[in-house]
Amino acid sequence: MNLYSMQKNIITNVRWKLGLLSFLLISNCVSDQKPQWTQSKAFQKFCGCAAPLPISSEKAATREEALGSLPEGALDDMGTPDYLERVYSGIKNDFEFTGTQFEQHVDGLVAKGVELKRIEEDKKLREILIVIDGDVAFPSGKSTMTPKAVEMIGKISDAVSLYPETNVRIGGHTDSAGAFTMNLKLSKARAFAVKAEMQRTHQIAEVRFKEVDGYADLRKIVDTMAPEPKNRRTEVRVGTVRIVL
Question: What is the pTM of this model?
Fold first, then answer.
């Protein structure tokens, strides 16, 4: 056998083996019944297997299915954008599963009493913003949460619990009606009330609260000194414990 024939046989053999390996990798990626070795992080990185999205709210049989979850360590494998896509889909599905009807607006999903928004950088998801209507969340001039607010915060807390590599920032905001010092005190009290509820019901660790504060009317959505419902709000921002690209 001459050198050319030997090289040709080697190339053919290598191609055949690579083809067989590709078939095994693809079939095991898409199969519902995967061998144990395909569950390793090394294999999933090699074949590019993406963690499945939460089941849509229309198909989910339970809230747990709609919300989904991820194990500790998934952030390093997936990266921040893909990890937060899972969290975003889970929160959206969970709200919809229990009857919330979102409408698509220019700046996000809007429903009665709550908005779900994407904070992106270079078209990649960096943070999830949940805006709770201040008039829905708290009685006027009070920092005691309404039952509806408790329900909404419970959903956010579920997501933070089931996606353990997330952190939270909470901001309380008022409109410009009334004295600034009183509004500042009230907005801070409301932000800490949300934090306390998350810790009371889900034991969210202190270290996962990156920022909890009130801003009165310093961060208006609508620039007016008049009473403005859009400025009365509580914002909960969900990000990852570190940025992984």
Answer: 0.81
